[in-house]
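Long-time lurker. I teach an intro course on protein structure, and each term I like to show students one example going from raw sequence to a predicted 3D structure in token notation. This year I'd like something fresh instead of my usual example. Would anyone be willing to generate the tokens for the chain below so I can use it in lecture? Attribution to the forum is fine with me.
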Amino acid sequence: MSEKVVDFSKTSGKPIRCRAAVAREAGEPLVIEEVIVAPPKSGEVRIKIICTSLCFSDVTFWRLKVPPAYFPRILGHEAVGVVESVGEDVHGLTPGDTVLPIFLPDCGECTDCQSKKSNLCSKFPFHVASLMPRDGTSRFTDLKGEALYHFIYVSSFSEYTVVDVASVTKIDPAIPPNRACLLSCGVSTGVGAAWKTANVEPGSTVAIFGLGAIGLGVAEGARLCGATKIIGVDVNPDKYELGKKFGVTDFVNSKDCGDKSVSQVIREMTDGGADYCFECVGLASLVHEAYASCRKGWGKTVVLGVDKPGSQLNFSSFEVLHSGKSLMGSLYGGLKPKSDIPILIQRYLDKELELDKFVTHEVNFEDINKAFDLLLEGKSLRCVIWMDK
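-- Reply from a regular --
Happy to contribute to a lecture. Here you go:
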């Protein structure tokens, strides 16, 4: 990582004045302004962000007008940076270390974090957090002294941020920053869902509902796992050519199935149903369609998409009993950040995991609103935002 060496001794333990892109009102352009970032408290790390990428979850909560939306807020959660300073009781991290701040905590101490069966920390349960997890306060204030809300433990749309040590993963600085940041959320979620949650087997068949960045991450993960048929399902026919770059072998346009349902089409294509189905959009109706597309007996449906609050699924007990299928959720692709992310980074460095093709645009921090426009217009998969380039 070609980040120049910085002497952080002058700022350690002191408030830092820096730039941040602040969401002042729902759906309004972010405002680049100066903010004050407090020093880290016990169990916390202050990070100098090198670059951040825009995930659709940022857009979702930027638009949202009711809780868990809070304003003014510093959004952003896909990023890479270097440790500027650490608070008390922080071990294994020192200033200058290259790190990923990751929204899913990995404390390494609770039963879940010590088990290979789960990535859902019990000490710091994930929620759409707006403040620091240990004391429920903010480390950001504007120049008028008003507190600014955090976003899911990260808040990377700021030149400096404070993150709990449970949400910080030290990484190999050999990986370029504009690739490393992708592993903080979307790409890791998709790849991990195929690799860790579903455990896709060589020679298996996969159906992916929604070919956005997460769905294409699933395709990349399924390709790495050796799946032989990877079916992409989307309403945009252009996604087929794009999907081929990520391992998609077949395509179903859900608007062009005639009098058949998507699940009927997929069952015919796979001689009874796909071994693994992934819902990557966030619609209850698509979860049902994915479940119906799975093969009886061993089919596995994995839910990755975030639906609106209160959305319900409705399955008949007869169907569940007689089909023998399984349905599961996958937060952050089932990955345990501190042990699995270094593996993905090594696979990138070994030229196995192809992160490069996910980056379609790069902009300077001053142009962060352009990144939002590109994503909303459907022109970008991942837009990398450089803090200082």
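Some talking points for your students: Residues 50 and 388 are 7 Å apart (CA to CA). The chain has a mean pLDDT of 95.
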